[in-house]
Design a protein that fits this description.
About 65% of the residues lie in helices and about 5% in strands. By secondary structure, it is mainly alpha-helical. A two-stranded antiparallel sheet has the order 1-2. Strand 1 and strand 2 (about 95-100) form a beta hairpin. Helix 2 crosses helix 6 (about 100-140). The model is unreliable at about 210-225 (pLDDT under 50).
Length: about 240
């Protein structure tokens, strides 16, 4: 099924709340208030199974003359938001209908674009904060080389901010607070395809399992303290 066919099906089944998205986006799409009202009237007619209302029909419901309605329809078609097609009824009789599918596609693209911009802005903000987090843990300002290293983790190695913070936390716990140690942690995690905090938890539990330590202690007649894992001495590397 094509994308436009899926969208049409979702709209007809009421699974996509287009009006709400439309109110958020129509101004960005260059649609005037009078055009927006006509579009909503068109949807209301479609809900009544009136697929091709006339300018007279619209004018009877709006504060627009028939001529003004025709201008709005023409404007929407010129912008590519409205098209006229043909369909048939149960008896095979052809009739014309308005289709706002191009508009709904534009609305969804606009909404997705806005969401992507929001996510990008949040990511940029988190990237800016990560340097401050490191400075707090190190108890000093970062050197230009250290700042460049963090930037490389983000831009070249494509480590997520949460993963970098987790590696920093691991270094703090191990009391080995150095960029070299954190870089080694990130290297090992990337090699093991650790990309989420859940993956991080699995890795750290594997190296510091209290149950495993107790079993080993019982076998030897004593219970030993679980040692901190040294990422610079990874035996798998």
């Amino acid at each position: 099924m094509q994308q436009d066919e899926r969208l049409q099906m979702w709209i007809e089944q009421g699974n996509v709340t287009i009006p709400q998205l439309f109110f958020n986006s129509y101004k960005k799409l260059g649609i005037q208030d009078s055009d927006a009202m006509l579009i909503l009237q068109m949807e209301a007619y479609r809900a009544q199974h009136i697929e091709f209302p006339t300018p007279s029909d619209f004018s009877s419901r709006m504060d627009l003359t028939e001529n003004e309605v025709s201008q709005v329809l023409q404007r929407l078609m010129q912008k590519g938001y409205l098209k006229i097609g043909q369909t048939s009824d149960a008896n095979g009789v052809l009739f014309e209908q308005f289709s706002l599918l191009p508009l709904w596609e534009a609305v969804l693209e606009c909404e997705i674009g806005s969401q992507n911009k929001t996510v990008e802005a949040k990511e940029k903000e988190e990237e800016g904060q990560i340097f401050h987090v490191f400075e707090q843990e190190f108890g000093r300002l970062l050197s230009p080389m250290e700042c460049e290293t963090i930037a490389m983790w983000i831009d070249q190695d494509h480590h997520g901010i949460n993963i970098i913070k987790a590696a920093l936390k691991e270094a703090v716990i191990a009391q080995k607070l150095s960029m070299r140690y954190i870089d080694r942690i990130l290297f090992e995690w990337k090699k093991k395809n650790v990309t989420t905090l859940a993956d991080v938890e699995k890795q750290t539990k594997a190296f510091r399992s209290p149950t495993q330590s107790i079993r080993q202690g019982k076998a030897q007649g004593t219970v030993k303290r679980v040692p901190l894992y040294n990422w610079l001495e990874d035996r798998d590397g």
